[in-house]
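Milestone M4 deliverable, item 7.
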Amino acid sequence: MSDKVSTDQYGRKTWDVEAYAEEARRGKSKKDAPSDKAVELVKNLNGQNYLDHRAYLLDESVLAVGKHTLISADSNTSSTFGKNKRFGFFCPVCDLSFRDTLALVDHFNSAQHQLGTPDLGEDVGEVKRASAEEVAKTIENLVQQLLRAQAVKGADSLQVRIVKRQEFEAKKLAARKERRKRQKTKKNVRENAEDEVNSEMAAMMDSMGLEALSLGMD
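Output delivered:
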């Protein structure tokens, strides 16, 4: 401290403002710097996809429930405490704490956390602004998919069409046989009626012939 505080000729103390400002900047930089654990964690997470990354952090947070961490007042730095690590669930990447898992998951899905893990193996699912051409192409693809789905739903397979054709031919053949049977029955009835009429006429003629013969003999 002696190099930052001096005494003038009148015995008044003066402070080196620039030295104190530089010390404050170094202290703030040291406190805000990510912990070694956070750096190692981000390094290990590189190459993972977003879902595996989030699941790993959630498991770590849930497994930490019920555990106690002793914090030394002399070493209250980011590596042991965290600028916002007070209670609840902790994100070691961003050095933040949350009181429940819902807030923790919201943080994992936020842009703040994604900025802390820029080297994940795949897209983390951020919303991308689409152009008018992309929107039109997407709509056209959806319409084509809908038309294909309706066509497949309304069309019968080849096997189904064969079975339906066989059933149609069988019904057609049965109807033809039934029609021929009715026609044959009508024909037989008509022929039988004609035979009966002829028999009656023959019987009447025979009867008339016998009567004429008997009259002639008389």
